Amino acid sequence: QVQLVESGGGLVQAGGSLRLSCAASGRTFSRYRMGWFRQAPGQEREFVAAISSSGGRTYYADSVKGRFTISRDDFKNTVYLQMNSLKPEDTALYYCAAQYSAYDISGPGTYDYWGQGTQVTVSS
Q: Terminal CA-to-CA distance of the chain, rounded, Å?
């Protein structure tokens, strides 16, 4: 069982930065691939980024590549999403998720645990 709690969301102007954090409970955090997803009103939940259990591999949606960086600190049981050069279209509720084992890293249905989300709003 893994419990996830996101933080760090807020209101920022276009071009600004935010860093999201996701704190995980449980001693098996290091075994999980971790991902970030987002969902805007009226839209489906979409993949943003993921990081392997070892931290050695990262994956990004094309829409955020070069602007967002995912990282993890297994000593702190925390995964981060550094978001730079934010755009109004990045506005969404951002979720952290944990995946134990799956080939599909971008499908929401393949993740085992989810946080409650943190709101990111980017003004133009």
A: 40
Strand partners, 121: 11
The CB-side HSE value for 50 (13 A sphere, CA atoms) comes to 24
In this prediction, the residues of the chain whose per-residue pLDDT falls under 50 are none
Residue 40 to residue 113: CA distance in whole angstroms: 20
Q: Which residues contact 41 (CB under 8 A, 6 or more apart)?
A: none
* Phi/psi of residue 6, nearest 5 degrees: -90, 155
Q: What is the rounded CA–CA span in Å between residue 63 and residue 46?
A: 11
Condensed to tens digits (0 to 9), the pLDDT of residues 30-53 reads 899 999 999 999 999 999 999 999
